[in-house]
Amino acid sequence: MRGYLCFIAIFSLLIEVVLVTKFNWLSLVLSLIFLIRLYFLKKNTLFLTSCMIGVLTIAFFYLYEGANQTFLSGGEKHAQLTVLPDTIRINGDQVQFYGELACDQTKKTEKVMAFYRLKNEAEQRYWQGIVSKLRLVVDGELIVPENNRNLGQFNYRRYLAQEKCHWILQISAQKESRLQQKNIRMISYRKKLFRFIDQRLPTKVASYLKALLFSERTELSEDVVKNLKALGVVHLLSISGVHLQFLLSRVNYFLVRLGFTLETTGYCLIVFIPIYGYFAGWTVSVFRAILMLLISLIAKKLRLKWSSLDSWSIVVLFAIWLNPNSVMTLGFQLSYLLSFVMILLNQNPLKKKQTPIIESIWISLVAMLVSVPVLVCHFNEFSWFSIFANIMLVPLVVHGLIPLLVVLLVGLFLIGHTILYTGFISIVQFFLVTFERLIDEVSFRSFYLIVTGVPSFYLILITFSSLVVFFLAWESRKWTLTTSLLVLSSFLLLSLQPFLQPYGKVVIIDVGQGDSLLIKHPFNKGNYLIDTGGAVHFKQEKWKQKKDSNQKIAEKIVIPTLKAEGVSSLEKVIITHSDMDHMGALIDLSKEIKIKELVFPKGGTAKKAFKEIVHQLVKKEVKVTEALKGDVLFQTKTTYLKVVYPFEKGIGENNDSIVAYGKIGEFHWLFTGDLEKEGEEQLIAMYPFLKVDVLKIGHHGSNTSSHDPFLHQLNPKYGLISCGLNNRFKHPRPEVLQRLEKYKVNIYRTDKSGAIHYQFNKKGKTVGANVFETILK
After folding, report:
1. For the CA atoms of the chain, what is the radius of gyration?
2. pTM (predicted TM-score)
3. Phi, then psi, of 773 in degrees rounded to 5
4. H or E element: which one contains 671?
5. Which of 135, 274, 532, 711 is buried most, with the most CB atoms less than 10 Å from its CB?
């Protein structure tokens, strides 16, 4: 059966995909095609074994699904909670962690994601020092995790479900606590190791050491992670077979130098590898790489003729049996797909004819081609520059940075208090600073990244099919210009997808308590953003301050939403006024999305914070325009949008908001920013016959806006409200909702429905069964 295990593994993997995707028709078709392929191999033992393992895979899936159910009702308010120390994350005055919640009625425990607001700095230091399991008695509220509220946004509920977690516990009070001294698992020692490293090494050095040697990247600079992602080499932060081969070769060399025989060294490595797996956190890539090496070592000891492909096949089976849902994660797809392709490349006889440089370029090219469809499905973009980034950075990290960090870690235990070691730390720190400058210089060039939008199912199918044909032709040495052109054509179609979309859109992006609205013309002929969203900062003590929440709004919400819509550049960003919840994410947005022109109301730079942002954008050669009544924001044959307010220079306050009126699709729209009653009165006085079909309700539904005369004159059919779920201002206010109902306005709210979408074609006709579609049904 050796040599054919990959057929069994791939067939079981396809069955797993069928089950996880709830019997998606394409996965069913692919499974059937593969089964027919197995049958025509005319190897009865292989065919029967594949069917038996397939049945076993189905059994494991339903066993897992049966166990991955919640027994909590959601009404529990008082409970015992065991904190898993390795999962503790502290951000200002908020601590989050995974915990095991005990239920008094069933006597069972269930994994939950817990959040707790720290009371003081001493309590923060206490939580930072926890390295053992902690038993708490708490009061709190169980909340169902949210699905994504915008297209392209991370789905937190799905992610937690994959971690066998179905609830978020918001802790309101901590009654008592005690450390558990018994049954402390290895995971506690991992936390102790990290604490030891943090106490003795500079922050930058410690963060890289933990990321590259132990898969702990939460403390790594977000800018570094973003830059590596933009270059298409973020996989360098995941422990892979390349990392492990280097580490094991060093351990092997060290043991041999100490006088161990090769036989004894082999046994030591078999023991060392699982221990290292514990300290590396058993991530998807760590599990695959370690288990493959372990199987290979054991097979060598038993003198079995075992190939890397056989090891890969066994690990695939173990992975999908232990956690079926992992097949839908990016980590699983990239780790197993790329390792599979690399194994096939290494086995190909053509490999011997290539020079090391050509081989490196070829492998980087193949890795990029294979990973593109996966990356596009998850991030709606890919970087063609990754082939060159891999060639430059992989040797630098694997043969330069990792060896330095290994020596640094060993030295920390042996000579950690000497002057020599202190000098070595300075060398490593200089290397890291140089590395960061290098990736910062070459990353985020607009021509690197190709934004595709949410990929068409058919385009992904064409791309995968062309790659399969390409590799089959290459493996059989029948690689022709035709197969190359086929691959290039499929990638070109994928890259041009935004320009092939015949529909335009208006999207009210759910940015929480703020405003952000995208207007996208058909065939990508113009993209306009009204406001960016942002977080309002309140003055806090230093220990309470969190990481930049505006950066998170840009990175987690606005940018992914724009890229999901195929938007890589914006003709104009219109900032209605200078409040933080309308423009706070602007700078971080501009780092990834090209902005050609910034429009804001005349006098908006009276506010210092906004003035500084405008100054930074001017340095980036963004055109800046101060707008007043009469300015045209855009105009085509079927659509237009123009400024109807303010009438004179203001100071960036609510009643200085840009109010834009125009025709988009079949409807006339009015976007009001945070315009309040006084501004509304001026507007209807200036335009006494103004009527609209769609009104973006002013000031998030505050009772300072949307007064009776204003609604009476406009007579809108639809009202769109952008506000945060359970926001502190209690927007939209009940009296506003009553007034809207009084005038029979159909209300859509982002806090209830998530992002709101309107779609139209180039002729200005509404597309779709419903006028407005929402993300949360």
Report:
1. 29
2. 0.91
3. -110, 145
4. strand 667-671
5. 532
Count CB atoms within 10 A of the CB of residue 154.
12
Instruction: Write the CB contacts of 109 (distance below 8 Å, at least 6 apart in sequence).
Output: 82, 100, 101, 102, 103
- CA–CA gap between residue 531 and residue 601 (Å, rounded): 12
CB burial of 384-396 (b: ≥16 within 10 Å; e: otherwise) equals: ebbbbbbeebbeb
Q: Which of 169, 83, 77 is nearest to 127 (CA)?
A: 83
Q: What pLDDT is recorded for position 186? A: 44
Return the SS3 of 348: coil
Q: Exposed, middle or buried, 285 (CB in 10 Å: 0-12/13-18/19+)?
A: buried
How far apart, in whole angstroms, are the C-alpha atoms of residue 55 and residue 545? 53
| Amino acid present at 305 | K
Assigned token pair, 251: 């351990």
Q: Is 470 helix (H, G, I), strand (E, B) or coil?
A: helix
CA dist 35 and 27 (Å) reads 12
DSSP labels for 349-408? GGGGGS-HHHHHHHHHHHHHHHHHHHHHHHHSEEETTHHHHHHHHHHHIIIIIHHHHHHH
Residues with Cβ within 8 Å of residue 224, at least 6 apart in sequence = 436, 439
Q: Give the long-range contacts of residues 456-465, CB within 8 A, separation 24 or more.
A: 456/497, 457/26, 459/490, 459/493, 459/494, 459/497, 460/373, 460/376, 460/377, 460/494, 461/26, 462/490, 462/493, 463/372, 463/373, 463/490, 463/491, 463/493, 463/494, 464/373, 465/490
CB 408 within 8 A of CB 205: yes
3-state secondary structure of 145: coil
Please state, in angstroms and rounded to a whole number, the distance separating the CA atoms of residues 60 and 321: 6
Cβ pair 57, 16 in contact under 8 A: yes
| Structure token pair of residue 752 | 């209830």
Q: What sign does the CA torsion over 307, 313, 319, 322 have? A: negative
Contact 400, 431 (CB under 8 A): yes
Q: How many CB atoms lie within 10 A of CB 196?
A: 15
CA distance 221 to 87: 19
> What residue type is assigned to position 488 of the chain?
L
Nearest to 696 by CA among 526, 555, 550, 574: 574
Q: How far apart are CA 734 and CA 487, in angstroms?
A: 57
Q: What is the pLDDT of residue 1?
A: 55
- Tell me the residue type at 212: L
Residues of the chain with pLDDT under 50: 181-187, 349-351
Beta strands 449-451 and 381-383 are antiparallel
Number of C-beta neighbours around residue 83 at 10 A: 24
Phi, psi of 33 (to 5 degrees): -60, -45
- How many other CB atoms sit within 10 Å of the CB of residue 499? 10
The reply to whether omega before 646 is within 30° of 0 (cis) is yes
482 burial via Cβ count (<10 Å: 0-12, 13-18, 19+): exposed
List Cβ neighbours of 23 (8 Å cut-off, separation of 6 or more): none
User: What pLDDT score does 470 carry?
Assistant: 83
Count other Cβ atoms within 10 Å, centred on residue 401: 19
Rounded distance, CA 606 to CA 626, Å?
Answer: 12
Alpha carbons 32 and 15: distance in angstroms, whole number? 10
Torsion-angle region of 630 (φ positive above 0: left; ψ -120 to 50: alpha; else: beta) = left
Cis before 560 (ω within 30):
no
